[in-house]
Amino acid sequence: MSPAKNAGQAVDTVDVALIGAGVMSATLGAMLRELEPSWTQMIFERLDGPALESSSPWNNAGTGHSALCELNYTPEKGGKIDVSKAMAINEQFQVARQFWTHQVNNGILADPREFINPVPHVSFAQGEIQVDYLKRRFDMLKDNHLFPGMEFTDDREVFNEHLPLMGRGRSADSKVAISWTNIGTDVNFGALTKQFLTAARAAGTEIRYGNEVTTIKRDGAGWKVYTKNVHTGDTQIVNAKFVFVGAGGYALDLLRKAGVREVAGYAGFPVSGLWLRSTNKDLVEEHNAKVYGKAAVGAPPMSVPHLDTRVIDGEKSLLFGPYGGWSPKFLKQGSYLDLFKSIRPSNIPSYLGVAAQEFGLTKYLVQEVLKDFDDRVEALREYVPNADGADWETVIAGQRVQVIKPAAAPRFGSLEFGTTLINNPEGNIAGLLGASPGASIAPAVMLELLERCFGEHMIGWADKLYEMIPSYGEKLGKNPKLFEEIWEITQKTLQLENAPEF
């Protein structure tokens, strides 16, 4: 029934409404089902299945982002390597491992090999400057227990032995180095999401696919969620006490429609991308690692080049990229009008600020958009010197919306590279903006959401929270013994013990 026919009356009432059937909503729903099993939940998804946008395995790199190899998390500042961000992200990924372990032990998640597999994580440096940086980074991390088994080499023979695909055909006088650890992972966030949602539906959660949330309005102490069936045009209203907006690039617009003042002045900058993919078995067998290099000047962090082993539906393949692109869409299956419809008087200064300050990014995106297939293969040859275009195909990656954060006058806004949690003061609506590391740290972000929005419940939930996240409230970076105990459990439960030697 439509809102007009119902005179604004809701046809359903739930405790928790989750917008978007991706890994974020799936994670929050799983947590709340354990903490408050009596609370009713409903999920709305505009597409006809789960994990079809950013959570899809072909729309992201599948790196279990723990800062083991991602060089943009260890910037050089004043001649020193700053590892603080790497430490923070690693801590957050440990929360994810613990939560997934708990869910496997409780039968919520089934076979962990469907969504997580051991793959070595490797950092790659080219040229004297990068090699020097990588060695200093390694020296900063090698004795840190959050980064176990870190190794380094600038020996060309060792490099060729470990990375034959990257060594063959490389100039003998080129300076290269790698640091690595065998404890990295490849994560299929699509499979993880589907397992969560299968368990959610079995527990009574109603999932409405093909239903787009058009607006959200206040209703006393709660919310009215207006939805439209994308196939029939039928509209409905659902009353919800709490709303989570996990709608990817559309989250900003929905939070605005809900009147959440905390998003005033925020803007979004869409960035798309492409991968090169190879399923050539000979190539796939020669390379077993996620190899991250240095980003081009002006490139956003999500465009750091990397050559990745992927494990999707039990099949291995190689991905290289991503190649940056631009589209005004805020979702891969969005509208070309998304960017233009998002402009408001309040966020125009934010857009102007980024336009003025991010010339390097603009130049980078223009260069990337102009590349053809041959240009992309040529870029691949920096990693795979003997790459043959016939072995590779182009795959469209997911669409990301980088957050443009407002700043107080007279300053303009700034482009933020990360995941931003927004909630209103009452704590009855929240949403996520931004991109990487995103999915990898979903459980940590959802813990923050619980603390912000359900503070009055936290004491009562304490025992359950410690059961789900044994390190809750502690920094594993400061507690080596606890880290080792938890690491051993998660390695065994997630079936990561027999990591392949790199």
Word description of this protein:
The structure is a single chain. The protein has 502 residues and is an alpha+beta fold. The chain has a domain at 264-420. The chain is built from 16 helices and 22 strands. Strands 6, 7, 8, 14, 15, 16, 17, 18, 19 and 20 form a ten-stranded mixed beta sheet that branches. Helix 2 packs parallel to helix 7, helix 3 (84-105) packs across helix 14 (442-453) and helix 3 (84-105) packs across helix 16. It is globular. 48% of the residues are buried.
Count the beta strands. Answer: 22
Strand content: 25-35%
Helix content: 25-40%
Class by alpha and beta content:
alpha+beta
The general outline is globular
In this structure, how is the largest beta sheet organized? 10 strands, mixed
How many helices in DSSP terms? Answer: 16
Overall average residue pLDDT: 89
How large, in whole angstroms, is the Cα Rg? 23 Å
Separation, N- and C-terminal Cα atoms: 58 Å
Which regions contain 5 or more consecutive residues with pLDDT less than 50? 1-7
How would you concisely characterize the structure shown here?
The protein is of the alpha+beta class and 502 residues long. The protein contains 16 helices and 22 strands. One of its GO terms (molecular function) is (S)-2-hydroxyglutarate dehydrogenase activity.
